[in-house]
Amino acid sequence: MRIATWNINGVKARIAQLEGWLASARPDVVCLQEIKSVDEGFPASPLEALGYHVATHGQKGFNGVAILSLTPLEDVKRGLPGDDEDVQSRYIEALVQTPTSMVRVASIYLPNGNPIGTDKFAYKCRWMDRLHRHMQSLLALEEPFVMAGDYNIIPEPIDAKQPELWVEDALFQPESRTAWRRFLALGLTDAIRACQPGPGVYSFWDYQAGAWQKNNGIRIDHHLLSPQAADRLVAADVDKGPRGTEKPSDHTPVWIELDI
DNA sequence: ATGGCGCGTCAAACGCGA
After folding, report:
1. What are phi and psi of A188, to 5 degrees?
2. Is pLDDT of A99 > 90?
3. Which residues is A224 bridged to in the sheet?
4. Which of A6, A34, A129, A141 holds its CA 20 to 30 A away from the CA of A249?
5. Which nucleotides of chain B are near protein (any atom < 7 Å from a CB)?
6. What DSSP character marks residue A157?
7. pLDDT in tens, A77-89
8. pLDDT digits (tens, 9 = 90+) for A6-43
């Protein structure tokens, strides 16, 4: 089973690329972020025509996440637990059944947090803490689960072409990197790191300053796997194809293959 | 050092992203 994550930066602006990529890559499950659409406005029909079931958690204008799956999605939950006041749509999870097994999949859009020293960064820190607590509760189920999405965290210097450019950025702050290590300390596996331990694996290239042409990228889109999922991990990679198309998202899909 | 781009927004600059 192949599970991909892709921040598409606007589902309506990217629907043609999304359709084309689904038709060729045919991932079993896709976690989308930054759909920038309310649920009623999400273009589900062309995706359903390609065989995908659709679950969305959108909002007007900003943020918004979704899960697409070739098999029906069950037990869909919207919103990250831990703060009833949080109105931003950044979390959706669902159960994906296979003939012989199951996996719980979450699509997350962790707050950017820039600029540092503001309430935006404080919100990011609170959100990371809520995510940590939710991971703990999911781990207690002792199930295979995959927490995939745009974490807005550069875990280590090898995850940036030019790490020195990011030292003042929320994505590379000590608080963000510490939160990442706390996720790992729970026993979760960073799938790309496990399969491709070297430098130079990126998932985002800025639109500006020819970042794509210079391969001035960062790795911020991740799959974290529970031990029961990590046991089944057979491959993980970045699909750089969509980033090189006309009118691309600034992120490109990252995928994992599980033997289930 | 800064901005350089792109999306969505009751429609023209602006918020936001990373």
Report:
1. -85, 155
2. no
3. A147, A190
4. A129
5. 3-9, 16-18
6. G
7. 999 999 999 999 9
8. 999 999 999 999 999 999 999 999 999 999 999 999 99
Looking at the structure of chain A, the number of domains it has is 1
For the domain that residue A199 is a member of, what is the CATH number? 3.60.10.10
How many angstroms is C1' of B18 away from CA of A79?
Answer: 23
- Domain boundaries, position A165: 2-258
What is the amino acid identity at position A86?
D
Active site residue A151: no
Q: Which of A177, A159, A157, A145 is nearest to A238 (CA)?
A: A159
**Interface residues, strand B, Cβ cutoff 7 Å:** A 7, 9-13, 34, 36-37, 60-62, 111-112, 114, 120, 150, 152, 169, 171, 204, 206-210, 218, 220, 247, 250-251
pTM tops 0.85, yes or no: yes
